[in-house]
Amino acid sequence: MHLCIGQVYAFSVFNLPMTRLIGITHAAADDWKLTQLGWIFSIAILVLGIASALTGSWLDRVGPRKAMLLAAACFGGGFVVASFGIRVHQL
Asked: Is residue 79 within 8 Å of residue 12, measured between CB atoms?
């Protein structure tokens, strides 16, 4: 569960490499700007807060195993969606 929560804070590791996806060693015209990538972090923090607020009582009812299963599914699904977005070069 902590891996899923902490991943959003590790996003800064991906920022610089994502600004050079097309021009690997130097900036290219179609590369994303750092300001464009900043929105990803902002949206992720917003969704993290909203999900915590909405699913807190659900966690108390169903227990940590179901919550971890849901978190892992969302975590893995997010990486699948993100990898597809990078593949087609769409934020």
From this structure: no
pTM over 0.70, yes/no: no
> Rounded to an integer, what distance in angstroms lies between the CA atom of residue 86 and that of residue 91?
7
Which residues neighbour 78 within 8 Å (Cβ) at sequence distance 6 or greater? none
Instruction: Return the structure tokens found at 84.
Output: 């597809």
Q: With H, G, I as helix, E, B as strand and everything else as coil, classify residue 89.
A: coil
Of 9, 10, 15, the closest CA to residue 32 belongs to 15
d(C-alpha 62, C-alpha 29), whole Å: 49
Look up residue 25 and give its amino acid. Answer: T
Cα–Cα distance, 19 to 37 (Å, whole number): 8
pLDDT, tens digit (0-9, with 9 covering 90-100), for 13-53:
878 888 887 777 777 778 888 888 888 888 888 988 898 88
Name residue, tokens 């969302």. Answer: 74
